[in-house]
Task: structure prediction
Amino acid sequence: MKSSEAAPTLVIPQVIVGLGNPEPKYDDTRHNIGFAVVDALAHAWGIKLSPDRRFQGFFGEGLAVGSSKVRLLKPTTYMNRSGQAVRSVTDWYKVPPEGVLVIYDDMDLPVGRLRLRLSGSAGGHNGMKSTIAHLGTEKFPRLRLGIGKPKVPNTDNGSISHVLGKFAPEEKEQVAAALQLAIEAVEMSLKQGVEKAMSLYNSRVVTPASE
Result:
């Protein structure tokens, strides 16, 4: 193979960030599904998350699948200032933006769907707006988990109530299955790169138990 035809560099996450809001009142809300994924990853890999003032959040590092060293972060800056925490970790460990995988909620995806991308806009998500602003680029991988649309669409109050509300009882099983799917997608990203995980998991969907 000629040098000009070298295989593209694999995008392997080094820092995995779940977006959400601190305080118990936000626990298990749709907007905090990024936190839920990081908690699930920490549990699966035996990584302890502890408060860390340097990184303005709950932070932990350890070995994931295939002995990959990873760092996990749940910013406690509140959603609108998530980028401050993300930037503090990337600066400290000298991780380039493409080495950061950000996990967050998406109203445009139904519950049970997830979507991996290598880059993209914030799509109206305040946590992503902050992260893009602080990293200075949109070119970093992200994993979006569907939280569904509000029952009262096209109103600010309806959207806010929806994202800050908890999942309905009938959605809980789907959410649990989606979290497991997210773990698998992240582990594939660590082993074979984000693009490989995209090809395998972007078409997957968790269907309601009734179906």
Summary: The CA atoms of residues 83 and 133 lie 7 Å apart. Strands lie at 15-18, 50-52, 57-63, 69-75, 100-106, 114-117, 142-146. The radius of gyration is 17 Å.
